[in-house]
Fold this sequence. Notes:
Blueprint: H1 7-18, E1 35-38, E2 41-45, H2 58-71, H3 79-83, H4 86-99, E3 103-107, H5 110-121, E4 126-131, H6 136-147, E5 151-155, H7 160-169, E6 174-180, H8 192-201, E7 204-209, H9 224-227, E8 236-241, E9 251-255, H10 257-266, H11 268-271, H12 278-292, H13 295-311, E10 318-319, E11 326-332, H14 334-346, E12 349-350, E13 353-354, E14 364-369, H15 376-394
Parallel strand pairs: 2-12, 4-5, 4-6, 6-7, 7-8
Antiparallel strand pairs: 1-2, 3-9, 8-9, 10-11, 11-14, 13-14
Helix pairs in contact: 2-12, 4-12, 5-6, 13-15
Bound molecules: pyridoxal-5'-phosphate.
Pyridoxal-5'-phosphate is lined by residues 109-111, 114, 135, 137, 180, 184, 209, 211-212, 241, 243, 251.
Amino acid sequence: MTLSIETRLTTELEEIAAAGLTRRRRVLASPCGRIAAVDGREMLNFASNDYLGLAGNAEIAQAMADGALHWGAGSGASHLVSGHLAPHEQIEKDIAAFVGFPRALTFSTGYLANLAIVPTLAGRGAAVFADKLNHASLIDAVQLAKAQGADSQRYAHNDMAALERLLAASDAKTKVIVSDAVFSMDGDLAPLPQLLALAERFDAWLVIDDAHGFGVLGAQGRGSLSHFNLPAAKRILLMGTLGKAAGVGGAFVAGSEIAIEYLLQRARSYIFTTAAPAPIACALSKSLNIIEQGEALRANLFARIAQLRDGLAGLRWQLLPSPTAIQPLIVGDNEAALALARALWERGLWVPAIRPPTVPKGTARLRISVSAAHTAADISCLIDALRAEAATLAG
Ligand SMILES: *Cc1c(COP(=O)(O)O)cnc(C)c1O
């Protein structure tokens, strides 16, 4: 029997179902990789963020297993109490050196890292300036800053003139600009040189979320700042996630000695949570090595991206102009996007449809995620399937 306190929930669940927006999880019977075993079928996987194909990497798994045998499975406490083990300390140093900042802190997830940065920098009297297409975790981080009395403004996607106007009109003593480096549903880059120039001119912090650039872009996969040849300026806080290209899990925030020390002392989502298991840090050390020496992986990834873009040119659905592993194919209508994803699924291809409210109305899309693990034949298979579906619709 339904409890009376459950009535509102039941009603909302029925509304979600009526709108065709109920979400279901698919259970994988295989590790994350180019092939995913689902419901007894082998699907070609274009749905993960495993851009370098490292999630199922045997050396990384071995490092994690060795780490677990040596350090145990659990860290036992938060970092500031007694949960900061030697592998945690080492991976912070290695990541900081890799991205070229004086210091870094690690977190269990990117979501927690973003919740640490924004409200900790932007307290009462501060103003936050955020791109409209920022990731949900940054949006929530800005909400937390607002709950502490910060002001917040959103500017149109990548609109530097709009951001400049907002900064010029603000008399907040602390200003914080917040942007994804690679936008997660569009795959395009933020204009980081212009963002940094504005941050300098208006004496603002610049918070960059490089979830999709770390490991993929820049020299040796050092990320989006490296892609643009930007320095590790003191006013930048760089967040990177470690569960996407790095293939493991967790996240880091890198910045100046003072900014990172301040987060360590003040960020509630750093302080009041148990440190991630040390074997994760051990796995990340191996992953960082592979990323650093991963030129062949990145060359393959970018060759596959180019192959996909060439192969889909002139199709009835257009790819957004993305230079990254995220290749969104705009379908427009929600039902049409779902139908296309279903048709691909029937052909053994797993490509997720993304609909509003995750993306703006009328821009429902397939989010094709390319990986270094994909072969040229895999990409051809996807191109052929999309062309065949387009032909069916053309009658
Ligand atoms: C995935 C993602 C996050 C969250 O990282 P998790 O480690 O998955 O919590 C934050 N920002 C962006 C842009 C992301 O794509």
